[in-house]
Amino acid sequence: MDHAEKIIFRIQEDAWISSLAAYVLKGKKVALVIGNCIYLHGTKETELLESTAWLRHELMHVQQYKKEGIGWFLIQYGWESIRKGYWNNRYEIEARDAAKVIDFEKKFEVVSRRRS
Ligand SMILES: [Zn+2]
């Protein structure tokens, strides 16, 4: 990783898009990544930032978007989901693996919308 620049990401709580995802998926706590933003439903920014394995998982999705571009990622992700389902989707496999990588989250830096 050397001195590579950090990947910037954002977190948005109570976003309508994650509420919709929660409704469709019947989930209580949902994190949905689009581009470099993690949209939350039923949870808070602090909870995600403290849940290291979960955070790493979502950050891998941020990295995937960055690597492939939003449009191409969504097409590929959708295609993987249709063919293989959620669990065997290669992007989800990669994200589950990232959850175990020590310090993976240190490659990233959160930019808060809130100003102090
Ligand atoms: Zn995932």
Architecture blueprint of SSEs:
Layout: E1 7-12, H1 16-25, E2 30-34, E3 37-41, H2 45-50, H3 52-68, H4 70-88, H5 90-98, E4 108-110
Parallel strand pairs: 1-3, 1-4
Antiparallel strand pairs: 2-3
Helix pairs in contact: 3-4, 3-5, 4-5
This protein binds zinc ion.
Q: How would you describe this protein?
A:
With 116 residues, the protein is an alpha/beta fold. The protein has one domain. It contains 5 helices and 4 strands, in the order βαββααααβ. Helix 4 crosses helix 5 (90-98). The chain starts with 6 loop residues before the first strand and ends in a 6-residue tail after the last strand. The model has no long low-confidence stretch (mean pLDDT 93).
From the helix content, strand content and strand pairing, which structural class follows? alpha/beta
Strand order of the largest sheet: 2-3-1-4
Strand content: 15-25%
Global shape: globular
SSE string, helices as H and strands as E: EHEEHHHHE
What is the CA–CA distance across the termini? 31 Å
Q: Which sheet architecture does the biggest sheet show?
A: 4 strands, mixed
What ligand molecules are bound, each kind once? zinc ion
Domain module count: 1
Name a few traits of the molecule:
5 helices; 4-stranded mixed β-sheet; 116 residues; alpha/beta; binds zinc ion
Summarize it.
With 116 residues, the chain is α/β, with parallel strands linked by helices.
